[in-house]
Amino acid sequence: DTIEKGLDLAKEFLQSILKPSLDEVGELFADRVKLWRVKNQVKNIEKVKAIVEKEGIKTKAINMKVLFPYLDAVALEDDETLQDMWANLFANYIDQEMNLTLTVYPEILRQLSSEEATVLQVLFTNSRYSPIPLSSTCETSNLERLGLIKQETSTYTNLGTVSIESTGKYQLTEFGDDFVDACTRNKKSSM
Questions:
Q1: Do residues 103 and 80 lie in contact, with contact meaning Cβ atoms separated by under 8 Å?
Q2: Which residues pair with 95 in a beta bridge?
Q3: Which of 131, 114, 125, 138 is nearest to 173 (CA)?
Q4: CA torsion sign, 92 to 95 to 98 to 103?
């Protein structure tokens, strides 16, 4: 009991003398995190501005259901591949010539890793409707969960028993194709 009381008194004393310092350190850390987030947002908005200027895009107002998730997610994104996808997606949303109205794309993009984005680009560029082999189950699992890709299967019938086997090949779903297209400035029609 005496030791516990002594520990409690020591703890209270240390908290009383360290608290102001810890509060300041916490505030300093919070300020740095805010600055880092703002830098990421500004960096991405500059990318969007460059796309708009380079391509002479006539802009339109953006849906708030897109704007707020975009600003929130891009603030945390420091991967260059994903930063580019965010900039392309935002540019497509504000492009008057685009009819991009589906508001789920920012939520989908927020859930992707750089590796998964690369897998999507490979499927989109090389063989959008023909399955290609992919080896990484980590990336493919999330992409399948999000409804962006599907695995090709083969069905066999042997003595009345139907067997379904995976071929190990994947392709974009229609939704996946539309999603990657929304995150790309080089449109399908130009491919």
A1: no
A2: 59
A3: 131
A4: positive
Residues whose CB is less than 8 angstroms from the CB of residue 96 and which lie 6 or more positions away in sequence, other chains included: 57, 58, 59, 60
In tens, the pLDDT along 34-70 reads: 788 889 899 999 999 999 999 999 999 999 999 999 9
pLDDT, greater one: 15 or 180: 180
Output the six-digit token pair for 17.
């003398």
Q: 170 and 140 in contact (C-beta within 8 Å)?
A: yes
Residue 143 structure tokens: 């992409």
pLDDT single digits (tens) 75-128: 989 899 999 999 999 999 999 999 898 999 999 999 999 989 988 988 888 765
DSSP E strands, 12-160: 132-133, 149-158
Please identify which residue in the block is written with the tokens 């920012």.
106
Cα 77 from Cα 42, distance rounded (Å): 12
Q: Are 143 and 124 in contact (CB under 8 A)?
A: no
For helices 174-182 and 114-126, angle between their N-to-C axes, nearest 10 degrees: 110
- The answer to whether 58 and 22 are in contact (CB under 8 A) is no
Q: What is the pLDDT of residue 188?
A: 43
